[in-house]
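Appendix B, record 7
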Amino acid sequence: MTTNPDTIPGFNAVAESRKWRIATGELLNAMSLDERLAYLNRARERYLNARSVKAAAEASCVVREEPPKP
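Structure tokens (predicted):
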């Protein structure tokens, strides 16, 4: 089930985005450079893996049949 943020009373996308950015900035600022790079590399790998799984799932839904031979 998907929910439309426009129908959620009191939901403010700008405020939620701002809270997320502030929290992420505080998290990254608390890390050393090596920790930050490792964290961001792990996040990148998770993102790329999720994209490839999604692309594979979308591609596997296509069924093509050969036309009948005369």
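Remarks on this record: Residues 49 and 55 are 10 Å apart (CA to CA). The first helix runs from residue 13 to 29.
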